Amino acid sequence: MAVDGCIDWSVDLKEYHVLAGEPVRVKCALFYSYIRTNYTMATNAKLRLIWYKNKGDAEEPIIFSGHRLSKEDDSIWFRSAEMEDNGFYTCVLRNSTYCVKVSMSMAVEESDEGKCFSSKIRHLEKAEITHGKMITCPDIEDYLAPYKQPQMTWYKECERVEWRSSITINNTHIWIPEVEEGDGGNYTCELQYGSRLVRRTTELKVTGQEIERVNKIKSFEVFQVEKAELC
């Protein structure tokens, strides 16, 4: 749809989620999903990339301070995201005869009280008991140094734990060859990025016939107790 002579692709499907105080890179989705060119080619064609922050129905040009917020090629970098950064960001690619734009949404959340994550922006994974499961550290590509192994720390329920011997801990993932009921919970990967930390949390929900059988037994036992009390 064209708005004021500019092709408007509305809001991109990708949403950015970040904990307050952590860095985040918001990429202009035009170059990844909507047009057949990249930032370098667009610049060589004398097209300008302009960024706006949506304020209600209005779009205000972003002033890049260079300290906390900077523009780098096709992206804007927040060195330390704050709650006030919540909202929609629009990138516009244009010259005198051509204009196209798209918006990206970003949600900044505080950690839950006493936790290292926000339950609002966890990733969700499911695993069946006795089956194998890999838990990855998602959306960290922009924070990895090229040709260098990332230094990753893994936590469960925000605590360092002693993993059982069958579990493999890799730089970017955890491999559980045979899932147990107790493996359910919150897994947080933590990556050092400059002076900041980048954290991602995945909630693992464990399902399976054995768990269902145990839950049915517990429900039956509760029913029997309640029935006995009524007699």
Automatic annotation (TrEMBL):
Record has Cell wall biogenesis/degradation as a keyword: no
Similarity section: Belongs to the interleukin-1 receptor family.
Membrane-related topology note: Single-pass type I membrane protein
UniProtKB keywords: Disulfide bond, Glycoprotein, Hydrolase, Immunoglobulin domain, Membrane, NAD, Receptor, Repeat, Signal, Transmembrane, Transmembrane helix
Protein's name according to its UniProt entry: Ig-like domain-containing protein
Pfam family, one: Ig_2
PROSITE patterns, A to Z: IG_LIKE
Domain of life: Eukaryota
GO terms under cellular component: membrane
